[in-house]
Amino acid sequence: MRNYEIMFIVNPSVVEEDIDKINTQIESIITAGGGTVAKVEKMGKRRLAYPVNKNRDGFYVLLTVQATGEIVKETERRLRVMDSVIKYLTVRMDEEIRRQEKIKAHRQKRALRRSTNAGAAARPAPEQSIEE
Amino acid sequence: MAIQKQYYRRKKVCKFCVERIDSINYKDVKLLSQFVPERAKIMPRRISGVCSPHQRRLTDAIMKARNIALLPFATE
Question: Residue B43 domain-assigned?
Fold first, then answer.
């Protein structure tokens, strides 16, 4: 199981209830395959940076899910078939999350070390960024 | 020093290192748009001063944002 973010844009002429319907449909695909939907966020209507299928605006929806590659594949296939969905993007997030945690842990350790010998060390250690 | 510069040039620093911005997310249009000038190209490091690990992540994020129409590929 991996963390993914699925973002898709719905045609702006579609009414709000139909967007909810699409969302529940997508959710059911994911849960049917054994994945879980952590969050469904309707980001609302916003202007597209460039026209997509002659649409200048779009309704953005963001799903944060835990799923396998198979489920994502199926979800993307379904999104492609739907007429009202004009664009979608799936991003894998687990590596990013792990990186964040690493940085956080590193910072905590550093803060702890600094607070313990704050008096002894007159000059603070030079900052260095951690990047793999 | 052999060559004396005639004017003082401020050293460029990486925004992400200085401000401790951990995540360069494709959804953060406000942050990303600082690095896409008018023609919607990605700003080179020599101008923005971003360090190479962060530039890599930044490029990645901008490309994702372009894909989902949050940022333009080019301005007309």
Answer: yes
